[in-house]
Amino acid sequence: MKNASAITCILFAAITSVTAFSAPKADRIDIHYVTPKTPEHQQIHDALRERQVLERLQEFLSPFKLPRALKISLAGCDGEADAFYGDDDITICYEYIEELWQRMPKETTSSGVEPYDAFVGPLIDTSLHEFGHALIDMHDLPVLGRVEDAADQLAAYIYLQLGPEESLRLIRGTAYAFLYEASSKQAPSMAEYANEHGTPAQRAYNVLCIAYGADPKLFGQIVDEGILPWERAEFCDEEYEQIQDAFEELISPHIDYALAKENFDRSWLSEAKGQSK
Q1: Contact, 276 vs 107, CB < 8 A?
Q2: pLDDT in tens, 256-267
Q3: How far is CA 103 from CA 29, 35, 112, 241, in A?
Q4: pTM listed for this prediction
Q5: Could you tell me the residue range of the domain that residue 253 belongs to?
């Protein structure tokens, strides 16, 4: 693995708030740092645990009321760079963290994506995507359409409730990761079109549309620069409102809003400038 210490430095800078850490107020999320299966990941494991990375995720998610305990684990996945949910358990693979590092640009991109944000954006998006699966499963929520699309929408909606600067950075980083994956492959195969997930390009445009629908002024640049076609953008406010209505109807009854306001008023990302490979 390439420069494990650099990976962990970027990760810690990305998700360690300048605000002092406090113990989570909910006891429905259990966290586990699983001993890596390969020696190459041991340094990541040790540093993540030392910096209480999962504890911070636990705190961020604490406003959500769950009917039973949810386990979130960092673990080795036999070479698979992935994250997944099943049986009340979210697993984020060390291999996935390593892959995000490998894909991180060496400098700020032409569209303004900082290397730091290209790393932390998809990491947070993926963590919340899997948490979306947990919410849908644990509360037995109805989903009209593909559950993977619903989990993508839930993830984006949640971090769009953060402050405008952090929302912008997370959306840019997440879209960068999807578009990087799309551009690094040949045209999708028929099997990829048949997958329960959308293609990386589709997922990028979906999250950009949600963001533009939420705040056309804040995210106007993605339309002005032609990143999100106007033919899609002109109806994104309706897409966002559809997600918002569903969230308020299905998810809001399971949220401690006093605690949520306290959490979302905080700064969760540290400064991006200067964070590169």
Answers
A1: yes
A2: 999 999 988 888
A3: 30, 25, 16, 33
A4: 0.88
A5: 4-264
